[in-house]
């Protein structure tokens, strides 16, 4: 039991930042993020003994996190939550953190306009996960991951052109 607790603490420390960033893709509400994080790591703890070693432990944890976030979004869509998220699941607070680069802020706003599945894929990509690991997390082929990332990048370019035409004009 003590070894499990030590392992869990180590896993939590190693994965909490990535899991938190994933939660940010699905809700802009700080309390909901904390609830999601807690739910995710409770599930990790409860299922630690069922880990089969077929993928890296971080991949397994990320898959639990993804499933928990998707369940959260589905429950919101069904109206099971009393407070609905605004369209776009804006991960930015009312004011971006001081010192935030405008280009980063624009990218986040564009990502928020993607479909949840697209946000997940681009989020994993931006975490610098290898395509093999993204494929394992999503349960799709590496080739499919490459195609989806390419299409999402194109979609982000289109969204950026629509949402921020002043940037395009400034670059010309």
TrEMBL record:
Pfam family, one: Sigma70_r2
Keyword Transcription included in the entry's annotation: yes
Keywords linked to the UniProt accession: Sigma factor, Transcription, Transcription regulation
GO terms, biological process: DNA-templated transcription initiation
A GO MF term: sigma factor activity
Domain RNA polymerase sigma factor 70 region 4 type residue range list: 107-156
Residue span(s) of domain RNA polymerase sigma-70 region: 11-78
Superkingdom of the source species: Bacteria
Cross-referenced InterPro entries: RNA_pol_sigma-70-like (IPR039425), RNA_pol_sigma-70_dom (IPR014284), RNA_pol_sigma70_r2 (IPR007627), RNA_pol_sigma70_r4_t2 (IPR013249), RNA_pol_sigma_r2 (IPR013325), RNA_pol_sigma_r3/r4-like (IPR013324), WH-like_DNA-bd_sf (IPR036388)
Record-linked NCBIfam families: sigma70-ECF
PANTHER family to which the protein is assigned, alphabetical: RNA POLYMERASE ECF-TYPE SIGMA FACTO, RNA POLYMERASE ECF-TYPE SIGMA FACTOR
Family stated for the protein in its record: Belongs to the sigma-70 factor family. ECF subfamily.
Name the record gives this protein: RNA polymerase sigma-70 factor (ECF subfamily)
Organism per entry: Acetobacteroides hydrogenigenes
């Amino acid at each position: 039991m003590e070894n499990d607790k030590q392992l869990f603490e180590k896993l939590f420390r190693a994965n909490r930042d990535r899991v938190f960033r994933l939660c940010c893709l699905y809700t802009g509400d700080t309390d909901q993020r904390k609830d999601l994080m807690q739910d995710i790591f409770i599930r990790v703890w409860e299922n630690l003994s069922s880990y089969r070693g077929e993928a890296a432990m971080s991949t397994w944890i990320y898959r639990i996190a993804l499933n928990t976030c998707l369940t959260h979004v589905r429950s919101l869509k069904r109206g099971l939550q009393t407070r609905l998220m605004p369209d776009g699941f804006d991960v930015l607070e009312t004011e971006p953190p001081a010192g935030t680069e405008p280009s980063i802020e624009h990218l986040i706003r564009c990502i928020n306009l993607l479909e949840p599945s697209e946000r997940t894929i681009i989020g994993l990509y931006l975490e610098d996960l290898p395509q093999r690991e993204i494929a394992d997390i999503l349960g799709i082929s590496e080739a499919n991951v490459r195609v989806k990332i390419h299409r999402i990048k194109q979609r982000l370019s289109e969204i950026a052109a629509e949402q921020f035409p002043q940037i395009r004009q400034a670059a010309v």
